[in-house]
Specification:
With 78 residues, the chain is mainly beta. It has one domain (11-77). It has one helix at 22-30; strands at residues 11-14, 42-51, 54-61, 68-71, 75-77. The termini are far apart.
C-alpha cells in the first residue's frame, strides 16, 4: 500500500508537466498560476484519496488567493 509523498503543512513548488490530455493542457493554459512563477512556494492544505491518476493534493499559495488541486507528480519539495 502506497501513501502520500507530502503531508499537510509541507511547502512545495509546482513542476510544469507537458500533458497529452487536451482538457488538462487547456486547464493549464487558463490556470490562474503564472507559469513564469513556478518558483512560488505553495503549502499543502489537504490530502485527497488516491484515484486512477495517483494521489492528489489541495494547495494554497503564499499570497492570498484561490487554492488549487494538483497531482503528486506536479509537486516537488520546496
Amino acid at each position: 500500500m502506497t501513501s502520500h509523498k507530502f503531508k499537510v503543512g509541507d511547502q512545495v513548488r509546482l513542476v510544469r508537466l507537458a500533458s497529452t490530455n487536451t482538457v488538462e493542457a487547456f486547464l493549464n493554459m487558463v490556470s490562474a498560476t503564472d507559469p513564469t512563477k513556478l518558483d512560488e512556494t505553495w503549502e499543502i492544505t489537504r490530502l485527497l484519496p488516491e484515484d486512477s491518476s495517483g494521489f492528489q493534493y489541495h494547495i494554497r499559495g503564499a499570497q492570498a488567493g484561490p487554492g488549487r488541486l494538483v497531482r503528486e507528480e506536479q509537486l516537488q519539495a520546496a
